Amino acid sequence: MHTYLVTGGAGFIGSNYIHYMFKKYGDDIRIINVDKLTYAGNLENLRDVEGRANYSFVKADVCDAAAIDAVFASADIDRVVHFAAESHVDRSIEDPGVFVKTNVLGTLTMLNAAKKAWELCDGSFRPDHKFLHVSTDEVYGSLTDEKDYFYETTKYDPHSPYSASKASSDFMVKAFIDTYRFPANITNCSNNYGPYQFPEKLIPLMINNALHGVKLPVYGDGKNVRDWLYVEDHCKGIDLVQEKGRLFETYNIGGHNERQNIQIIHTIIDTLKEMLPDGDPRKELVSEDLITYVTDRKGHDRRYAIAPDKIKAEVGWYPETCFEEGIRKTIAWYFDHEDWMARVTSGAYQTYYEEMYGNR
Ligand code: NAD
Ligand code: TYD
């Protein structure tokens, strides 16, 4: 029976991962979720698992070495899945410091704590103890050639403070692998979407704005390309890599679903119109007229696209949810969770929105 230490489990992907793991393994695993509960962390995302005997939550900062050591001392942890991070590019442009702190120093703290807990007298590690570092395709930079893709061998070339901090954290994991033969894997995934995503990111922001008749802010010419993956497929990939992947290896995760931002926005508008029942007042608000081109993001990467050949060949991963189905499931989830959206967009979100979009 594996005991998982999941960091950042109250965020978007972390909470989906915890749901996925309990759905897959039930009572055959234990999960300890360590999260600082920043603006992006929300325990409401985990309401339906918090009563489980094999789940516990610890409120702690991944930069707090004493707190992380105490978590390792409290249970026989043999799996770490490290999600905790500052994750939004626009915020990193405004305030890079916290990205370095959480993403770089926080990852180092997690590595040090796991190494201390798992290392044997001869410098090797306890058998079948594994650390998985969750990273992003943004570390590879921006593609110009339409036929080009990010492979695991692609040279790192991060541009934003966010991607630079994630690249640094990846290098620290690689350094632990190369120096200590520390038992880790890295996954670099493309853009995720799905339930529980905070509405600072493109898809939930556009769904929420459209339903309220608020303008849809398109950065630049709207032709930047992202490779979108339904979040559950990412969770499945993480689990497969940790259980079946070759230790020390990096795996890219992506579903060959590249779309321009403006295409995504049109799909959201069309799907909302189709899914909202006649007579629903929100149907009147959803309109192409809301699309508003605004000042581009500084240093905006043009195109991301993952080549998932390695994860497919080595662990048999494939994406199960195509974009048309995934976006419908996502919109249906937001329809059913209007109160969740209302709560996360009250208070501090209003200040954030005004600062980010007020004069754009
Ligand atoms: P998120 O912002 O939704 O969640 C981050 C979580 O980490 C929150 O619960 C937050 O409270 C927690 N956290 C932040 N700082 C912390 C700290 N110092 N100590 C403890 N907890 C802290 O992010 P997400 O979109 O779920 O991303 C999770 C991970 O996946 C990140 O490492 C991100 O880089 C990576 N990733 C995200 C995407 C994507 O499309 N969202 C794609 C590829 C990789
Ligand atoms: P985002 O969801 O922030 O993810 P990332 O920057 O990590 O890829 O943005 C996805 C794309 O959508 C990116 O090209 C920026 C663009 N975008 C907008 O055009 N308008 C917006 O309001 C947001 C949040 C993003």
Task: Provide the descriptors you would attach to this structure in a database record.
360 residues, alpha/beta, Rossmann fold, seven-stranded parallel beta sheet, 13 helices, binds nicotinamide-adenine-dinucleotide
Give a verbal description of the structure.
With 360 residues, the protein is of the alpha/beta class. The protein has one domain (2-357): 3-Layer(aba) Sandwich (Rossmann fold). It has 13 helices and 12 strands. The chain has a 7-stranded parallel β-sheet, sandwiched between helices. It has a 3-stranded mixed β-sheet with strand order 7-9-11. Strands 8-12 form a two-stranded parallel sheet. β5 (130-136), α5 and β6 (184-189) form a beta-alpha-beta unit. The model has no long low-confidence stretch (mean pLDDT 98). It binds nicotinamide-adenine-dinucleotide and thymidine-5'-diphosphate. Nicotinamide-adenine-dinucleotide binds next to α1, α4, β5 and β7.
